[in-house]
What does this fold into?
Amino acid sequence: MSRFIAAAAVVFLIAGTAPAAVVTKVVDYEFDGTKLKGYLAYDDALKGKLPGVLVVHEWWGLNDYARERCKKLAELGYVAFAVDMYGDGKTVDHPDDARKMATTVRENIKTWRGRAEAGLKQLTSQPNVDASKIAAIGYCFGGSTCLQLAYAGADLKAVATFHAALPTPTADEAKAIKPKMYIAHGADDAFIPAKAIMAFKEALDAAKVKYTFEAFPGVVHSFTVPEADKANIKGMKYDKAADEKSWKEMQSLFKETLGK
It folds into this structure.
């Protein structure tokens, strides 16, 4: 009998210390009359206020890739919220459709920044989020969106972009940038002109923005996306080493700026 009790006690202790699963849920909200569907992820075993990270999807929309990044962030101890930039959680598979949807958003700066800001508001309003410790990350179109948030003076501690287009801020926009930034770029990314990179850096340098620009040799666009090759688009290819290195650099930036 004593052996049974001891075994039961061990089982109880193991069960009691098992890590809680990451909680995920769809969050309905809106901006300027457009209904949006974001995606929230956090570890419910962690108590108290936690740093938050806004995740902005690629031009495909809020798909499984963006959701998986949210889950990974939740596993690291952050509350992650993937913003919906297209409305109704819409996603597309064909590049022509993706280009059309991303362009429609980018052409209206009020909509572009407004939807991102609406997502940021959803994140900071979560009861388990420390609104004074917020970062934003984005991929491709999403990276550019994070930059637009920074240009608008959003109260962010850190921004990390991965294979993003690099819109040049005006002098005033550059001066409005608050977060420290990490820009992960494929050195052989044919989608981002060298002139755009130069103009981007010059604007940030003039405003004395704190940032790190890392260009990975031999790496092209979408290097963090394992499924990138399946899109069958020349110039888009996954690179495991660049993906892992940039993710580690992002974590280092968060540890420095968010205290985690």
Observations:
- Confidence is low (pLDDT under 50) at residues 1-18.
- Residues 240-258 form the longest helix (19 residues).
- Residues 5 and 11 are 10 Å apart (CA to CA).
- The chain has one domain: 21-258.
